[in-house]
Structures are given as structure tokens and as C-alpha cells.
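All the exercises in this workshop are built on plain-text protein records. The record below serves as our worked example for the rest of this section.
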Amino acid sequence: RMLSKMMVPVYLIVFVIASTSEGRHSPIMLVPGIGGSQLTAKVGEPMPSHCRTNGKFRNIWVNVYKSVTDSEFRKCFFEDIVLKLSYTGSTETFTNQSGVEIAVRRGLKGVEYLDQNKLTHYFSQGQYFHPMVDYFVDRGYRRGHDIRAAPYDWRLAGDQLERLGYYNEMKSQIEEMVSEFGKKATLIAHSLGGPVTLYFLTHVVDQSWKDQYIHAYIPISGAWGGGCEVIQSLVSGLALIDVPQLNLNWVPSGFVPAMRSFESAYWLLPRSSNWGDTVVLTTTNPTRSYTTKDYSRLFKDIGNEVGSQIYKQTSKLLAGWPSPNVPTYCYYGTGVETVRELNYDGANFPSGKPTIVYGDGDGSVNVENSHICHKWKNEQQAPFQFKQFKSVGHIDIIKDNGVLKNIGRVVGAKPTFLDLLKDLGK
């Protein structure tokens, strides 16, 4: 009799799983953050001969093995990846260096891992969206069918991505999934993917399209309003590869010039609309201080006057951070030390390492960015939810079990046998 009583909940679990048929969940489109899409390059004349690839594409981002073992590869990487800026009237256009073609590795293969080398896949640092994809595959999704990805050239901001047709491709993929599976799609974006997808929802598609095709929008650690870490990357640089297990912390000399050429870097700068007059950088000898209203002066002082022009343009792209007006679920990590202010000694400004004052955030995105999501609650008619996850870092948040469970509820993912057993035990 005891055995029969124990078997009742088991039969119930099996019934629930069996009755949750494939296709009942919302299909998912993943959009990565900065550095989250793999890049390949084909390099020819007039680039230096040692950088040319003989008409073939080679993996450049990320290529850990080459970055560690090949000094020529490191030099070529920064020559290859720098963008050129030109103007037609007041219209900015960013292009690759002459002789360089950069391609984004498409689909889930371009975002599950950061490096094509399978040896790096065993390290958590080499995994990006892979844990999330695995989580949903275990719950009835199929790679490349009802869970897909839209990688992009993360050196660019929304206007240039639109010019290159990125949004048309993403729109077509979403429409294809909705047509095939009969359920509206969920757009999941991480970090820079937040502004990239918000641009899509507010500048590319109209409300009737959103009503027809979007089930939910889930920005995770959305980088609206930027982060102070980006200021450091533009002034003196950050570690491009940081793998403690290998005692590897690489801040190459070519990083800063490359970063200063990226349109997306200026799109990610903290904005005065949600930072106000807060000081974000100081120097001594001479004593100077800069707020988010002082970028023109800062860029002039570090010899990057073109940065003022790029920032002026990118700050207009999502002015006021308009609400997406679709069911929105904003998830943020907090309780992790995050760069809040940079203090440079005059002797090491701008090339030296600053003393860092930390504040709250997820290690990359400051907590101030969450204020943007908060304001949408009162600006849109569509449902809205905001959740913070304590002590969860910027990359860890897309792998966090609590976050994944919340997403699973939103998309209607089929629970696993273990999921239901855990629920019964509560």
C-alpha cells in the first residue's frame, strides 16, 4: 500500500510531462552582448603580408591558443579589427580596414561558445550561451529549430547593424519560427544585446508586428545607460583575456586604439540621463574630474577627439530609452563589485592603471542601469516584471539556475522529471 501511494505522484509527473507536447512553448531567439559573437576574418592586400590569410577566413575572436602562443597573430588581430569612420554629410559609416573582411559566425554555433577550439569548451570561461541552450534542449527545445540565435558584429551599434541588414535577418528568423511552431517568439538579450534588441523593437518593427510575433522580451543585464568599465576600456584598456586558471591576464597595447574605433563602445558609455552629475573619473597632478556630461573634454584630454563625434551620434539612437511595449521581464545581477569611479595619477593618465572605486552591480553593468527598466513599468501597457538576482555576475547570470527557471516559466518550457520531483519536495 505504501508503494502504491508513492507511485501516485510519479504517475502524475509522467502524465504531466507526456501531456506537455512539443511546440507548446514559445520559440526563443538569443541575442548576445559585446564580444559574445564569434568573428572570423579574411585578410588580403594592402594589409601586411604576415597578416594575410591566403583567401581564407580564420577564427580571430576568440582564438585563445593563437592569442597566447603567436605574437604575430596578436598584432594582426588589432590591425584587422579596427574600424574606419567616414561621413556622408552628417551620416556616419563604419567600415573594415581596406583588405579586411570580418564575418560573424551565424546561428547558435556563434554564441554557445566564445572560441571555436573545442578544448576551450570544457572551461566555464569559454562557455557563453551553451548552458542556457542545454537547459532548454533538456526541456523539449531543438537547436536551430525553436531555439535560435542572432549573432552580430558587436563593434557596431544599432544604426550600422540596421544598415547592414542584420535586423531584417533577425525579423525573418522570428517570423519563420512563429509560422513553423504556431507560438509567438521570446526575445532573450544579454548585455549590449539589450540596446541592440530595444533598437529593433522601437525603430525597426511597428506595434502590429510586435503584437503578432513577440510573446515576451527578456533583457538580462541590459546595458542601457552604459557602465563605468567602458570608460576604462576607452581610456587605458581592460584585460582582453582573463583566465585565472592559466594565470593569464592580457591587456595588449593595441586594445585601446581598437576599442576607440568601435561604435558600440560609445553606445555603452554611462549617460547623464540616469547618472546625473556623478563623477566617474578623476586625475591628480593636475587635479581634474569628469562626469557623464564631460565626455567632450575627456576625449580631448586623452587625444581621442573623434570619440566626441561618435558619442554624440550614438547617444541619439535610443534617446530617452523608449519602452519596448511588449511583455517585458528585466533581470539583473547585483551585489558584485562593479567599477564606479576611476582615479588616475597625473603621471599615468591616460595610459596607466587607475585606482578603482567600486559600487553595486554585476561586475560589469552598474546597478544604475536597472533604473531604465523600472521606468518602463509606467510607460507601457504591456505586462512588466523586474527581478534582481543577488551576488550573480554579468556572465554567470545567463547560466544561473534561478534565472533559467524564471525564463522557463515565461516561455512555457516543458518541465523535466527532476524539475517536477523538486517541486513535489517543496
Notes: Residues 2-19 form the longest helix (18 residues).
